[in-house]
Each structure stands twice: as C-alpha cells, then as structure tokens.
Amino acid sequence: MKATCWTGRNSVEVQEVPDPSILNSRDAVVKVTSTAICGSDLHLLDGYVPTMQNGDIMGHEFMGEVVEVGPGVDPARIRVGDRVVVPFPIACGACSACQAELYSCCENTNPNAGIAEKLFGHPTAGIYGYSHLTGGFAGGQAEYARVVLADVNALRVGSGFTDEQVLFLSDILPTGYMGAEMCDIQDGDVVAVWGAGPVGQFAMDSARVLGAEKVIAIDKEDYRLQMAAAQGYETIDFRNTDVRSALLEMTGGRGPDKCIDAVGLEATHGAGHIDLYDRAKQAVRSETDRPHALRQAITSCRSGGIVSVIGVYGGMIDKFPAGAWMNRSLTLRTGQCHVQRYMKPLLRLIERGAIDPTRVITHRLPLTEAPRGYELFKHKRDNCEKVVLTP
Amino acid sequence: MKRNSRSTVTLAHDPLVRGLGWASLALGVPQVVSPYGFTRALGTAPALRNRWTGAAIGVRELTAAAGLLGRPHPAWLWTRVGGDAMDLALLARALMNRDGRGSARTMAATAATSAIAAADVYAAVTRTFRSSPLELTSTVTVGKSPDEAYEFWQRLDRLPEFMTHLDEVRATGPGTSHWTATAPFGRTVEWDAETTEDVPGQRIAWRSLKGADIDNSGEVRFLPAPGGRGTEVHVRLRYDLPAGALGKAAARWFGEEPHQQLDDDLRRLKQVMETGEVIRSEGAPGGKRARSEFPQHPARPLSEEELKEALS
Known about the structure:
The complex is a heterodimer.
Chain A: E1 2-8, E2 11-16, E3 28-37, H1 39-45, E4 56-57, E5 61-69, E6 83-86, E7 89-90, H2 96-99, H3 113-120, E8 126-127, E9 144-147, E10 155-156, H4 163-166, H5 172-181, E11 190-194, H6 198-209, E12 214-219, H7 222-229, E13 234-237, H8 243-250, E14 258-261, H9 272-283, H10 292-300, E15 306-309, H11 322-327, E16 331-334, H12 339-352, E17 363-366, H13 370-378, E18 387-390
Parallel strand pairs in A: 11-12, 11-14, 12-13, 14-15, 15-16, 17-18
Antiparallel strand pairs in A: 1-2, 1-4, 3-5, 3-9, 3-18, 5-6, 6-10, 7-8
Helix pairs in contact in A: 5-6, 5-12
Chain B: H1 8-12, H2 15-33, H3 35-42, H4 48-70, H5 74-96, H6 103-128, E1 132-142, H7 146-154, E2 166-173, E3 176-183, E4 187-199, E5 203-208, E6 216-224, E7 231-241, H8 244-253, H9 258-275, H10 304-311
C-alpha cells in the first residue's frame, strides 16, 4: 500500500510499504477513506520530536471502513464494514486513567513507556504516527491502517455525515473543544486564543458554544485572522500590535478572563530579539520548546483567570513567568486531548449544526501529494489552513 | 537495590585473606629485625642500600599484615599485589646485576615471590568482585482484586508472558517448578524452584533449589490499593550473580539494566491483566522484547518474514 513516511528532518515521502496486519487480538484494520495533516505533524517534520525513525508512517487523524477484525474484538462494538473515525490517542479503556476518562494518559498502550517515562516522569498513551516515544505505532496517512484495541478506539458513524464533517473528531475538533472546556467558561467571559490554526479555530467555536461573551484570536497570518473574523471573533495581529496592550484595550483594562494556548512549542514572537533568543537556545538544545504564546497568555490573563494549554510542548522551556502565575492566582490546565471522551457529544453538536468542522478545510489533495500538502501547510502558502488527504 | 556490602566481618573469617595476613607478618618480622640476614638469604648483594630496602619492605609487609588481620578490606590485598610487583622488579634487577654469588637463591626467591603474587592477585580479584546478591524491587497497581492478582501469579507459569528474560516456567509437582531463562550475553540458564510461602490473596515466595545455574529467589505481595483502585503488586527478586559487581557492570555496558527491565516487566503484567495481552506496535512488534529491539522497526507494517519472527 501507499503511505506517507517520515524520511528525515523536513522530508516526507509517499512510499510503498507492506499492508498492515493484526498484531493484537483486539486490533482491526481500516481502509482509510480520509486523513489529514495536523499542526503537530509539523513538529515531527521539523525534527522537534525525538525518536522518529526513517520510514515511520505519519498521521494520527484518519477514518475509514473496517476491513478486518482480530478474534478478540467485541462484535457488538466493531464489525467488518463499519464506518469509523479513529481517535489519535490509543486507550485501553481499563486502566485507572481510562476509567477516569483521561484517555491520552492511558497506562497500558505505550510499548515504549519506559522511554517516555524518562522524559515525562510518567508515561503517556500510545499515539498513531507520532514517534517511538509514543509507542512506535504506524500512522494513518496511508491507504490502510491498523486500529489498536479497536473496540475502544473507533467511533462508528452513520452514513448521514460526510467524511469531512466527522474526520476532525479524530483530533483537532475535540482538542479545540477541550481547550475551551478547561476554561470553565462563565457568563460574560472574554476568551483569548493564541493561534488561529485549525485547533485555535475550533477552540474559538467551542468557547462560543460554551457561552463566552467575546472571543479574541491572536495570530500573524492575515488569512487565519480573517477566517476568525468571519465567524464574528475579534482579532489581534501580533506582527504590528503589542498583544498585552491590545488585550487590555479590548477588555476595559481587565485582561481576558480565560486564555487558550493553541500554539505550542514552535511559537514565533512579534519582537525579533525575543524570538532570536529562544531560537538560539533551542538550536543549542538548552531549551527544547519556544514558549512565547504560553508566556504571553500567562502575563495577559486577568488575575484569578485560567490559562488552558492545548498547543503541544515536548520538553523543557525557560523564562517561565512563575511569578505572574503564582502571585496572580492563575490556574494552568493542560493535556493532550482525551478524544474518546468528546467524540459522541461533539458528533451531536455537528449534527445540530452548532459547529461546522468543514469550515477550516482549505486544501483537498490525493494521498500521493502529501509532501506538497506538508509544504503548503508548513509555510502557510496559498492560505493553507487545513489539508485533507484522500487515498 | 542494596549495595553489595563487603563487610569486614566476612573478610575477617576468610581463610585466604587471613593466611595472606599471617604470611605478611611472617615475612615482615625478620626483614625488620635483621634486614642484612634477610637479603643474604635471598642471595642479593648485601649492600647497605639493599639492607634499608629490605627493612622498608619489611615495614610494608607488617602494614599489610596489620590491615589484613586487623581491619580486612580488599584494598589491603591490592596493596600486596602492588608490593609483589615491586619485589619482582627488585629481584629482576638483582638477577641482572649479579656477580655470580647466590644466583640460585635469588632464582628461588623470585619463584616463591611469583607464587605469592599469583595468590595475591587471585585473592584481590575474587574478594573485590565476589559473587554478590542483586536485589530488585518494583511495584505496579493493577485494576484487579488481590485475589484475582494472586490467582494470576499462583502457579508462576504465566510469568514468561510478561517477564522479558523468562522463557518458560513449568510446574513439576505440588509447590515445585522448572524455570528456563535468558541470562545476560544470550546464555540460557535453568533451575528448579520450590514455593516457600503461599498465602492466598496476599503473598507468594519461591527460591531456587540446589544445583541452580544462578541461585535466586523471589517474592510477590498483593496489597489492596487505596480508594478501590485495585491491587498493588510488590515484587522482589534476588539473584546471586557470578562475579556480581563485575557481571552487573558488564551487563549494563551491553544495555541490560535489570531495574528498568523489572519495571517494564510489571508494566506488561498490568497490560496482560487489564487488556488481556501485551500491547504490540509496529515499532515494538516483539511485545515483551520491546526494549531489546532498539533501534526499533520503523513505525510501518511488517513484511511477512518480519511478522513471523516478531510473533514467534
């Protein structure tokens, strides 16, 4: 079959690889009908996530039709012929993390937990196509993919939805939603969102659904800000505006009640010298992540507010504004999305028309053009917001 | 892990160590009392320099004797090894610069010193890198009741499902079993074991019987986890490794870290008990062999041959 493979820093290729097979008795194999490139795939492409190997299949946003099931799969849950969306974190459904619906922290699904533990203190769940640190699972940017513990890790969807309507239930829609949910939004809240990429857009939509009075998008790409403005959100272009001052201006001097970091470890900064500082430190590995968005969210948030982090961080940062965080009673909430928790409720929101996931799609390419998709998305060419690939 | 303690108590009762201590004393006393007589006996030239050298060697011997008999420590044995090297060098010089007299006696002395040196090296090496117990402990919480966890362990034959180094545990009778394991450097070791304690729902302990390739024992305890979170499984394993410290260091050099291995084993125990099997990825298709598979298979499906090998 054809699959999008990582072949080194800044290099992906569509290669011919063996078809997937059942490795565990509760596995299933799906024929992928739609898959997408995620912003976090760019962290892999750019070489910021350790333990990638030449030939690893990329992709953790995919859906398709079940073509094979292992002998241990509960037929009441998944059968051949089902149309399923696959959540990116692999959960077992049985451990104490899964029982607490913290699926991305599953204690059983990462065969390389011993390595992950060295970096994170405790291991996290396996993730498809996301380095060997998260288990070394083949990704879904391919013609076929293995679904691990399929009775827990596949959501059946009816034929009443198009692929594009439900594909993003695999990651970015629940991730954005969880970002807003962690904000514990109250009547009258102003929510600021750093990053107007697809996850940021869905965090904004979710904040509105959850009752935010005003939503502010912060980015530097005109087309992304326009996409947010078209939904009725206010915008700040950090290239030509001081973010903190603008936020104070827009909130009567209070600062946003809730702040969402939908940027993560590869942030760029409006002020050249600060950007240069973090890039230099990152280049010599004295920090792994560039946390501009996180710093700014913490210093901008009103006292007693919540900073919700859904942008991906991988290792160590420095110049963390601990003083602002502690002295101003801020709450920091984070997590890789516990996708399984949100899939069904969000499917209902899509059905009701409260959220339209298709609004972020700007590019539809055949799987064979995946490398071009990565180029467009990475360099934000051709107003690229979200690339969907079809095998 | 507890440090391997070479206590003064054990060395104090070690016949070889005591013997070498008394030998030091027996050689040291005449050298100090009559350095001239001693150098003559060796057939070395009775020059004043040699006499003082003899006395100095005598003092060294007495110091080693005091150490070995008074406060035994492998360092004293290494002092003796160093002294032997010095003595052999002096004797070699005497053999080369000689005027013909007493050469037979010097040769005999050289032979005797070589024999003593061999005994010293043997004692120093074996007493420094002696067989030492390797004690490993690890714990994991599984979402099962203590009774269920106990039942899983009771016959010990399911251990190879999740423990990397175990190939097979077979029950051979009531309370006895035969174990096959892979030791560092790919060796296969076997032993018979008996269950020494079996408290349903609480504790199982076992130990190898006489004639084991590696003497070992183990214990598992099942404690209810607080808040109804299942059972804390506490495992303690003890191995008497040949050439303990040296073996451990060598194994680590080849990438086998026993503590990490036991932690990983118990993680897989949790997988088996909670999900039914060890989770495999394309990168780590060998299940319990995941760690030894680095660098891993790329995260892409396996070819048919690779699949056959991985699932074997």
